[in-house]
Amino acid sequence: MFDPFIVKASLVTGVALGALYGILAVSLVLSFRMSRIVAFVHGGIALCSAFLYWYLTANPARTSGHGTNLAYATKEWPKAPAVILAVLLGAGLAALFAWVATGRMARWPRVTVTTFALGGMLIFTGITQEIWPGAFEIVPSPFGKGRVTLWGANVSHHQIAVIALLVFLVIVLHFVVTRTKTGVQMRAISDDVEAAEMVGVPVRKISMGVWCISGALAGLGGVLLTPMTRLGASVILFVLIRSLAGAVLGGFKSLPLALLGAMLFGQVEAHTAGGTFGKISSGWREVILMAVLFVGVVIVARRKQSQFRLAET
Amino acid sequence: MSVTPPKTSLRLPGSLAGFQLTPPVVGVLGLALVMGIVPQFVKEYWIFLSSAGFLTAITVMGLAVIIGWAGQVTLAGAALLGTSVYITGYLLREGLAGSGAWPFIPAMIGGVVCATVLSALVAIPTARFSGVYVMVLTMGLQVTMERTLFTYTWISGGAGADVRVPRPEIFGFKFDTDMRYFYLCFVVMVIAGLLMHALRRSRHGRAIHLVRTDRQAAAAVGISPWRYRVIAFAVGGFLIGIAGAFTAPLYESPPALTQYVLFQSLFLLAIPVVAGTQTIVGLASVAVAFQILPAALQSHRLSVYLLGGAGLIGGTLLGPRGMAGTLLDMLQQKRDVARLSELAGTDEDSATPTGSGHSGE
Amino acid sequence: MLEIESLRAGYGRLPVLFDIDLTVDQGEVLAIVGPNGAGKSTLLKCIIGVVTPTAGRVVFDGVRVTHEPPHLRVERGMALSPEGRRIFASLSVRENLLAGAARTPSDVVEGQLERIYALFPILEERTGQEAGSLSGGEQQMLAIGRALISAPKMLLIDEPSMGLAPLIVAGLYRTLGELAAEGIGIIVVDERSTEAISAADRVCVIEKGRIASLTASTGG
């Protein structure tokens, strides 16, 4: 039943998918730890950054509607400054959101603030749709078009670079969170915001900083994930949900676990889609993925509940 | 923190004995008057759109039950609606196991049961969790439905295919024109609103409210928070199912899948968030406005994303009681301030610290 | 060193404190006692800055700090050990202590760590342990240690004896006496008034949000 060729190829595809979901998963965990909300707004931020990057770098001859008066006059900038601008845009939009979420809404119920985050996602999505209505574009990779074959799977340089970058970022961020003074303050805030404030942690400043970093990551995520898919509102949302599943599987707590969760989710998806377990219809695949998410949530929520029983009610 | 709903009934001088002109009653009477006259002078397109608006109103009543009573946010609104639309549509066209097309009422029951059961099913395992996880899981349900049931063209009817869904015939009366269907939708909306009103006043409604306000207190008086959360989800699913069942024949052919995707869930969610969950008339008005606005402002190309996003952001900034609630609060505040200043001279010390209107979940 | 002038505070539209006037000098221990809900904890929260007063002012070291955020006040030399201990359960003992030193220079932190470990040797033993696993008494020591880490000139302690055995409480107040002897001003809020009163130089009774009496302690 297990064809070794298919299994190997699916493994590689799974890692690539995991990387795709991992970037946003990491940024979701960062902001969750600061404000204990699901930062759906990162979906909108990723979309804005991806659109900006595409607009700055894409070849106008390769945009949809080329030759008609509906075509978008994209610039053909070099990739590096475009990536930097997109990341900065992500940080800026996140700062805008966090200004309200960590200020006025700092003590509001988490469900309300999460709903606010959904609103942010819709607004940012709406803005891109106003500027580039209906765009569903191919995005050039910042790492070129090269491809290699690894264990029977065809992998792009882009995918390899994304995985390397992601692992690097997670290691750096994990070091900051666990080993530095700022990391201690971050974790103090995520344990008990009010207590952190009372003992002199500059809560607002740290939260804003972390939100900016998570927004920058979301922006980077938008830039890095759209070359693997395409650029459109539904695509980002689709990836965001899977990233969320990855973050949940990782317990919504540590960055390496979030990456691991995203990888696990990528593996499940790759193997069910790739045929490791025989042919599975796309409908059943969704049901299986939903079941994985479900089990993840049940485990995480149970554990969280026993940890913070008083705080959560 | 929730407060007991303020008494807002206006006891007009000279009102009939025992009959109170509460805002819902005023609203219903006023609306009925408008309903009788205005539609006769409006283009057919707006009639049709208003019917859709009434059905949206029923949908958001369902969401309001879940948000307002269980204190939970569901992101599966569009999925539940779509499920009911497609199942009802399928039964109206094909029936089950070669039985041939079903009449409207049984087909409606089929759609409503599916939506109710689905909503309750997600609630059962999540009812003990904090709200954020409920959001994640309902979002999962939404996406799963989008990618399973809604994509099976034999159920949904498929996009662009030449599939007809007949307008219903209830007790021998044919609701075949847009105008007739408009009135049918309106009546159904009023019934749904009255049902919600009655339910809120019932023992169960108060229990649900208590569960939301103070879980510990609810548990202490023997109300199971878990059970009532599930009931709130089921009632919400039921109302959304009703809306879906009446949406199925609205377009006379199966509506497109894009009407029931996650973004639509968020758009629907924006309505109770803006309107607040306290007044049913407020909910219905905002729902109809949200349905008609994008079409009315079509020349300005108002993106539904922006409208929905502005709704969610504005609504959450206004606070848990929404627009209607905030207006009531402002009236109430004036009275409170007057009362407080009366008391201030004598007994101002008795005040004890409480949270800032937004604590608790 | 700390002067509070006609301070009023409340939550939302509910007033809690009315016209509080209070001063605390270097090396002085002030005990605040009074019934539940009288506004004692709110007063401490106003002093540290998590509750903003509606009127009046807080002056520390000659500087008006009434509208400064808490972390700046900690930097100026105040520290609070909050009601209910509020330690960071998932952080280690050492990290809990460091969390209280957000803006403190690292050489000061090193010195204070040594002092805290000398005061509460059990904390040094458990330095890497998750704080949530400590006993109630150990958590209280940790909360006080966390307040001391920034080498404060003014220490605010809310309900230090809550849920502790009498022997430990006696030890705690001995420690507070030693700290005061070094010139640290201390405000301690306590419901178990006897220990607090006997350790204090002055006792302030708060009732219904007002100072009911302010007298030199006869106990110490």
Describe this structure in words.
Chain A is mostly helical. Chain A has a single domain (4-312), classed as ABC transporter involved in vitamin B12 uptake, BtuC (Orthogonal Bundle), CATH 1.10.3470. Helix content of chain A is 72%, strand content 3%. Chain A has helices spanning 4-35, 41-57, 79-101, 110-131, 157-179, 181-191, 193-198, 203-225, 233-249, 255-274, 282-307, 309-312; strands at 147-150, 153-156. Chain A has a two-stranded antiparallel ribbon with strand order 1-2. The termini of chain A are far apart. Chain B has a single domain, classed as ABC transporter involved in vitamin B12 uptake, BtuC (Orthogonal Bundle). Chain B has 14 helices and 2 strands, in the order H-H-H-H-H-H-E-E-H-H-H-H-H-H-H-H. Chain B has helices at residues 23-37, 44-70, 77-93, 104-126, 131-147, 153-156, 178-201, 203-213, 215-220, 225-247, 262-275, 280-296, 304-318, 322-347; strands at residues 169-170, 173-174. Chain C folds into 2 domains: 1-77 and 154-220, P-loop containing nucleotide triphosphate hydrolases (Rossmann fold, 3-Layer(aba) Sandwich); 86-151, no CATH class. Chain C has helices at residues 40-48, 70-76, 93-99, 106-119, 121-125, 136-148, 166-181, 193-199, and strands spanning 2-11, 14-24, 29-33, 55-60, 63-64, 78-81, 154-158, 185-189, 202-207, 210-216. In chain C, strand 1 (2-11) and strand 2 (14-24) form a beta hairpin. In chain C, helix 3 runs parallel beside helix 6 (136-148). Chains in contact: A-B, A-C, B-C.
Structural class of the secondary structure composition of chain B?
mainly alpha
Which strand order does the major sheet of chain A show? 1-2
Biggest β-sheet strands, sense, barrel of chain B = 2 strands, antiparallel
Q: What order do the SSEs of chain A take from the amino end to the carboxyl end, as H and E? A: HHHHEEHHHHHHHH
Order of helices and strands of chain B: HHHHHHEEHHHHHHHH
Strand content of chain A: under 5%
Mean pLDDT over all positions of chain A: 87
Give the C-level CATH assignment of chain B.
Answer: Mainly Alpha
CATH architectural designation of chain B: Orthogonal Bundle
Under the CATH scheme, the architecture of chain A is Orthogonal Bundle
Q: Please mark out the parts of chain B with pLDDT under 50 across 5 or more consecutive residues, or reply none.
A: 1-18, 345-361
Could you report the average pLDDT of chain B, rounded to the nearest whole number? 78
Distance between the termini of chain A: 48 Å
Task: Give the number of helices of chain B.
Answer: 14
* Number of separate helices of chain A: 12
> What is the strand tally of chain B?
2
Tell me the distance between the termini of chain B.
7 Å
CATH topology of chain A: ABC transporter involved in vitamin B12 uptake, BtuC
The most extensive interface between chains reads: A-B, 51 and 56 residues
Q: Could you say how many structural domains of chain A there are in total?
A: 1
